[in-house]
Design a protein that fits this description.
- The structure is a single chain.
- By secondary structure, this protein is α/β, with parallel strands linked by helices.
- The protein folds into 2 domains: 116 residues, Rossmann fold, CATH 3.40.50.10440; 128 residues, Hypothetical Protein Tm841, Chain: A,domain 3, CATH 3.30.1180.
- Helices cover 38% and strands 24% of the residues.
- It is built from 10 helices and 13 strands.
- Strands 10-9-8-13-11-12 form a 6-stranded mixed beta sheet, with helices on both faces.
- Helix 5 runs antiparallel to helix 6.
- The longest helix has 18 residues.
- It is globular.
- The model has no long low-confidence stretch (mean pLDDT 92).
């Protein structure tokens, strides 16, 4: 069985990775002042954050048209694929996955298996890379899904946002009311809740420096308690200097660990806002 692997643009894979692993990427639209842009195609990160600062209205995100997705899957059938594993951003922050679940049974030319990553950014990209590797090695759908589930269960992440305004206005923060009070004075720590898989704020920190130290403290605990080697991922929202510095710091503290630096593109940046930072980790699937 020839299996295609599809993800969406919030995986923030670079072009070399997409080409190397043969991953198909579906762009997610972001809407700024009434104009729609396809992430990764007709708007760069720099352009987006400039527009975010100067937009007249709060940006929003959308879903790829369902008709377009049906056509896309049928094109994969034309290319000789028998099945597709379609890995997408968390269903708690987007309705895209659930929309694909609804249409999958109606597509008869190719077997479509939507997969809820329960996360986003390059942590989701890693899932797509692993799925592609397994598919190229001849693994069947059931084995790929099992291994994705196992790897997904090792993912954890901590976000630091400059303020909660974007998340609150976008309705993406499930416990916003508990954190609104000092919204301009704190640097809240956020994560995807292990049970609900929704974005939650769980700790109030009084400065960015202290927030970074607290994240590193929690990460150190995760490393100490992990039964397997971890891979770390630093992400920034249009703050590459801070992202580079933090990546370097993590690498110095964990010299044998794979530590990568990625970013929050337009779709996720819409909700987190500029200058957000995050540290994510998962079992190192290459060790």
């Amino acid at each position: 069985m020839k299996i295609a692997v599809v993800t969406d643009s919030t995986a923030y894979l670079d072009e070399s990775e997409v080409e190397k692993y043969g991953i198909k990427v579906v762009p997610i639209p972001v809407i700024i002042d009434g104009k729609s842009y396809n992430e990764g195609i007709d708007i760069t990160n720099e352009e987006f954050y400039d527009k975010l600062r100067n937009s007249q209205s709060f940006p929003s995100t959308s879903q790829p048209p369902i008709g377009q997705m049906i056509e896309f899957y049928n094109e994969l059938a034309d290319e000789g694929y028998d099945a597709v594993i379609s890995i997408h951003l968390a269903s708690t922050i987007s309705g895209f996955y659930n929309a694909l679940v609804q249409i999958a049974p109606s597509i008869d030319r190719i077997k479509v298996v939507p997969y809820d990553s329960q996360i986003t950014v390059k942590l989701m990209g890693y899932l797509a890379i692993v799925a592609s590797k397994l598919a190229s090695q001849g693994a069947d759908i059931e084995e790929i899904i099992k291994q994705l589930d196992d790897l997904k269960s090792t993912i954890d992440e901590l976000f630091i946002v400059d303020d909660l305004q974007n998340l609150v206005r976008g309705g993406r923060l499930s416990n916003a009311s508990a954190f609104i009070g000092g919204i301009l004075k704190i640097k809240p720590l956020l994560t995807f809740d292990d049970n609900s898989h929704e974005i939650v704020a769980f700790e109030k920190i009084r400065s960015r420096k202290k927030a970074l130290l607290r994240v590193e403290e929690l990460f150190a605990q995760a490393v100490a308690n992990s039964p397997y080697p971890l891979r770390a991922l630093v992400l920034d929202a249009n703050d590459p200097v801070a992202g580079d510095a933090w990546t370097k710091s993590i690498k110095e503290k964990y010299p044998t660990m794979t530590v990568e630096h990625s970013y929050f593109g337009p779709v996720i940046g819409t909700h987190l806002g500029e200058k957000a930072l995050a540290l994510g980790w998962l079992r190192d699937f290459e060790k």
